[in-house]
Amino acid sequence: MIRGLFLVVLALLLTGAREPVLVPDVSQRNVDIVYSFTGAELLLFGAILYPDGRFPQRDADIAVVLKGPSQPILMREKQRLLGTIWANADSTRFQSAPGFYAIATSRPLDKLIDERTAAIYELGLGNIQLSPADAGDTGKQARFENGLVDLRRKNELFIDRPGAVEITNGVLYRARLPIPARVPTGHYTAETFLIRDGRILAAATRDIVIRKSGFERFVAVAADQSPFLYGLCAIALSLALGWLASAAFKRF
After folding, report:
1. Beta strands in 29-60 (DSSP E)
2. Among residues 155, 181, 186, which one has the least CA distance to residue 68?
3. CA-to-CA distance for 87 and 184, rounded, in angstroms?
């Protein structure tokens, strides 16, 4: 962190940059998931470097976003038939929906930027680009998008924390974002945005990897690389456990 800060300061002096620069970092670049994983907390922090060391008369705001990994998803809508039976009625497919999305801001987002800017930078749960496969019926699209956001909020996979970013002396910032136990594995991006007067002044990104570790990683890799052998082993293990359970019950 200190070395990176020094290099950025040196670059500012050499290039004569007139815009502020963000120097972000995260508490963990790799998050390992083991059998006892119950969740974690990620600290996103950094500094705001102003050209010539001159501070503005009014402090800027910070928004941090942790997002990833994106994948296609099929959403189904259920309806009640004959009063008691639930059945699939309608469905739609999203081509690129993030498995996890968390945002924290120094103030409520609607106080920082307008809706157009928020949509461009995908800031806020209502501005996530889901890339629906069928863009014909806008009413249906909005209904399913709202349903997906509500469902993932309930599962703590979409998180919104206004006012959670702390800024010290207009230079240092920090924010904590929770990582739930059911978080999907894959590559994530931690994005930091510097905002003032409704405008994005600077942005920076750090990469994070959330992966399974230990025996869970071995099982996941085996299932992905050798699915046939993995299936045979799973069947053999199930038969062996069933036989052992039967033999134990016969003794008693």
Report:
1. 30-33, 40-49
2. 186
3. 28
Alpha carbon separation from 137 to 12, 62, 134 (Å, rounded): 49, 36, 7
Tokens representing 186?
């894959």
Which domains are seen in the chain, by residue range? 2-213 (2.60.40.1930), 214-252 (no CATH)
> Could you tell me the two tokens for 59?
């402090």
| Residue partners of 111: CB distance under 8 A and separation at least 6 | none
CA distance 6 to 160: 33
Digits of tens for pLDDT over the chain (252 positions)? 445 444 444 444 444 456 788 999 999 888 887 766 788 899 999 999 887 766 666 678 999 999 999 988 888 877 776 666 666 677 788 888 999 999 999 999 999 999 999 999 999 999 998 887 776 677 778 888 888 899 999 999 999 999 999 999 888 999 999 999 889 999 999 999 999 989 999 999 999 998 876 545 555 555 556 666 656 666 766 776 676 666 666 665
Distance CA 9, CA 1 (A): 12
Q: What is the pTM (predicted TM-score) of this model?
A: 0.76
Cβ atoms within 10 Å of 170's Cβ, excluding its own: 13
Structure tokens, 15: 């290039």
Cα–Cα distance for residue pair 220/226, rounded to 1 Å:
10
Q: How far apart are the first and last CA of the chain?
A: 63
